[in-house]
Amino acid sequence: MALENTAIQEKLVSTFGDDVFNFQQERDIFSLEINANNNTAIILFLKNDPELRFHFLTDLCGIHYPENPADRQFAVIYHMHNWYENKRIRIKAFLNGENPEIKTLSTIFLTSNWMERETYDFFGINFIGHPQLKRILNMDEMISFPMRKEFPMEDGGRTDKDDRFFGRTVDNC
Q1: d(Cα 73, Cα 62) in Å, to the nearest integer?
Q2: Residues in CB range of 58: below 8 A, 6 or more apart
Q3: Which residues in the chain show pLDDT less than 50?
Q4: Range of the domain at 87
Q5: Is residue 102 part of a domain?
Q6: Alpha-carbon distance 154 to 146, whole Å?
Q7: Which terms does the record give in the GO molecular function aspect (predicted)?
Q8: Does residue 163 lie in a domain region?
């Protein structure tokens, strides 16, 4: 019997109530939002439930929404896969823009270790309890987070490129 979206939603709502919401089918993937304070319990439930069996964390990433209210300016997105039923789900947890932090999944999925480090490196999202949360791709000395929308697209001090070669002209004639 195929794992239906309604079965996933009913199990989650009956177990977590208002901590899971905004269920919807987005193109070919079932999506939902969760309360960020309860992320580890919800992810662990999805992994260990004998009917749901989302044993594989395929991706974890961050998003910056500077135009959102302060309590929803960042989001962590989890993509999970049930290999038995070939079912995928997307889980989104919004975070506060002043202090974006969420509990680590590194004790549940070892693969989340580097994904969380990358998300920290580019967005500055703190994963509470992570065993070694430090930059993974950028220099340790870097003080900004380059995937945040306030980060400038280009370095104004660069002298090694000519805007004409990138389809931009210097004069506005």
Answers
A1: 11
A2: 79, 80, 81, 88
A3: 172-173
A4: 18-145
A5: yes
A6: 10
A7: NADH dehydrogenase (quinone) (non-electrogenic) activity; NADH dehydrogenase (ubiquinone) activity; quinone binding
A8: no
pTM metric for this prediction: 0.86
125 found inside a domain: yes
Pairing verdict, β 74-82 and 87-95:
antiparallel
Say which residues have a Cβ less than 8 Å from residue 65's Cβ, sequence separation at least 6: 72, 73, 74, 75
**CATH number, position 77:** 3.30.460.80
Residue for token pair 């389809």: 167
The number of domains in the chain is: 1
Query: What number of residues does the chain have?
Result: 173
Residue 71: how many CB atoms within 10 A of its CB? Answer: 12
Would residue 85 count as lying in a domain?
yes
CA separation for the pair 147, 124 (Å, rounded): 9
Looking at residue 82, its pLDDT comes to 97
